[in-house]
Amino acid sequence: MAQLNANKQVTAQKAYRLHRAGLEITVIAERLGISTKAVTGYLSKSGQSPLVQLSVQAKKRTISECAANHLALIARDKLGTFAKGKIASFSSEIATDNQYIKALQQAITSATVSTTDKLILQTQLRSYQQDKVSSTLQLLQAKEVEKPRIVTGAAAQKITARSRRNTVVIAALIGLILGAIAALLWDSVVPRLRPTNGE
Questions:
Q1: Of 20, 59, 139, 194, which one has the greatest count of Cβ atoms within 10 A?
Q2: Which segments of the chain does DSSP mark as H helices, in order?
Q3: CA 149 – CA 80 distance, rounded (Å)
Q4: How far apart are CA 29 and CA 35, in angstroms?
Q5: Is the pTM of this model over 0.85?
Q6: CA atoms of 7 and 15, how far apart (whole Å)
């Protein structure tokens, strides 16, 4: 789907064209047998990428596997741009903190620095160390939770035709078989249940 920048003014005609393009892409995807759905039973937390299943139906096994894997890579790369930006930002913050920590540690161990200045430098050192810890935790969250990834690769499966008509036909056939079995057993079960005249 197309995303609109909030700062730009969009006319009704442009919005209509974008809407039509989104509908056309949806129709093309359905015709090609491409579908997505959220995995049931998976609860995503705030800021966490949801677990999504991508399916591609094709006549040949390798085509469906390759198409699904390629589409998953494209989706991962497109959806991961925000997480990549956060990872780059936190990585540069950690590198900057490391430089300041190293410089402060050298200054604290220097013999030319007074005791009062060393106490001030230790306070600054603690601040940079805490900032590094905070940035490291946020970097870990961005890498492990927010960044989209492919959990499992595509594997082709044969599927049966799933339609309401097929389901009704199979259910009727099963009912017919069970009814025939019940009718055959009825004659042998009913006489045992009836009381005889002598009792």
A1: 139
A2: 12-32, 61-79, 81-109, 115-141, 164-193
A3: 8
A4: 7
A5: no
A6: 15
- State pLDDT tens for residues 77-88: 888 888 899 999
Of the candidate ranges 16-20, 69-73, 80-84, 141-145, the one whose mean pLDDT is the lowest: 16-20
Q: Any residues with CB less than 8 A from the CB of 84 and at least 6 apart, and which?
A: 147
Please check whether residue 121 is in contact with residue 107, taking contact to mean a CB–CB distance below 8 angstroms: yes
Q: Residue 83's closest CA among 166, 164, 18, 148? A: 148
Residue 17, amino acid: R
* Maximal CA-CA distance, the chain: 121
Q: Residue 65 has which token pair?
A: 């596997």
User: How does residue 7 score in pLDDT terms, banded at 50, 70 and 90?
Assistant: very low
